[in-house]
Design goal:
By secondary structure, this protein is an alpha/beta fold. It is built from 3 helices and 9 strands. Helix 2 runs antiparallel to helix 3.
Length: 148
């Protein structure tokens, strides 16, 4: 199966590779998911960059503790979706292979370690429209197809 690609890959541009792992976290009724709003106002799936020798699951578990204060049980792996984009904040072009998982259960352990993001639950169609990254939209649609 081909890896879906989002964004525009420009010729003669040096892209910095940034491996990321992200989670689709539904509520109990599976009719809403939680999103993270960055300080710039953009909405993303919870998750983030894989650091050093971390595995996908180690990185995702760490990121979800930092961003949400959640301890999670990971479920189905939906696959990889690549994203090409320019970050004005970092003045850098990124190639972001995104690895997307579902969370089947979570425990709200504590306040998030990162206090600069906003968290909110959205109905699935609204969440898909709000998500900035095509790779994140793809992951939610793949999750939705499997559960509805």
């Amino acid at each position: 199966m081909a890896i879906p690609v989002f964004g525009e890959k420009k010729d003669n541009v040096d892209y910095q590779k940034r491996l990321g792992v992200y989670a689709i976290i539904p509520n109990q009724n599976k009719d809403q998911i939680i999103l993270v709003q960055a300080p710039n106002g953009a909405w993303f799936l919870p998750g983030g960059e894989i650091e050093g020798p971390e595995t996908h699951t180690q990185a995702l578990e760490r990121e979800l503790k930092e961003e949400l204060g959640f301890s999670v049980t990971l479920g189905y792996y939906y696959g990889q979706a690549d994203e090409y984009f320019y970050s004005r904040h970092r003045d850098t072009y990124f190639h972001n292979p995104a690895y997307l998982y579902e969370v089947t259960d979570y425990i709200d352990l504590a306040e998030p370690l990162e206090d600069f993001n906003q968290l909110a639950w959205f109905p699935i169609p609204e969440a898909i429209k709000l998500l900035k990254r095509g790779s994140h939209q793809w992951g939610v649609k793949a999750w939705q197809a499997r559960h509805h």
